[in-house]
Amino acid sequence: MYQQLTLRHLEKPQEKYIEKDIEWVCESLGLNTGRDIERMSPRIMSMFLKRFSVERAVPSEELADDLVVTAARINHHVRNLVDSGLVYREKKLIVLRGGSLRAAIEELKEDTERIFDRLLHIAQDVDQQLGLKNRG
């Protein structure tokens, strides 16, 4: 499974608004790119989470209708969400991994821990083969 996750350490907004919190989560996970000047990723995520709380699977076409944008534009951003591992697709439906935002982020955390464990193992092998010692 291909998974690309960018983690950014950003200061959490002082305002206590759900939209700001969702935007912060998206930015912290690197889902907002510099080209996303309309902040489409947090808008999609916000609409998706609201609909997901009721429907448990959301068609991307309906997100496009809700946000008054093309389905292609939604699918571009949904692909980024899928690549990050936050959501997955079941045919034309989008599903939040783990069933809640917290569970999805916990699963992402476990994914990163597995990746770092593998990296540490390989790094140790490389160090041994090159005769490098821990200098810390």
Describe this structure in words.
The protein is mainly alpha-helical and 136 residues long. The protein has a single domain, classed as Arc Repressor Mutant, subunit A, CATH 1.10.10.10. It has 5 helices and 3 strands; from the N terminus they run ααβααββα. The protein has helices at residues 18-28, 40-55, 60-67, 71-84, 101-130, and strands at residues 58-59, 87-90, 93-96. It has a 3-stranded antiparallel β-sheet. β2 and β3 form a beta hairpin. α1 packs across α2 (40-55) and α3 (60-67) crosses α4. The longest helix has 30 residues, at 101-130. The two termini are 34 Å apart. The mean pLDDT is 90.
Q: Please list the strands of the largest sheet in the order they lie side by side.
A: 1-3-2
| Topology order in helix (H) and strand (E) letters | HHEHHEEH
Quaternary structure: single chain
Give the C-alpha Rg: 18 Å
Structural class: mainly alpha
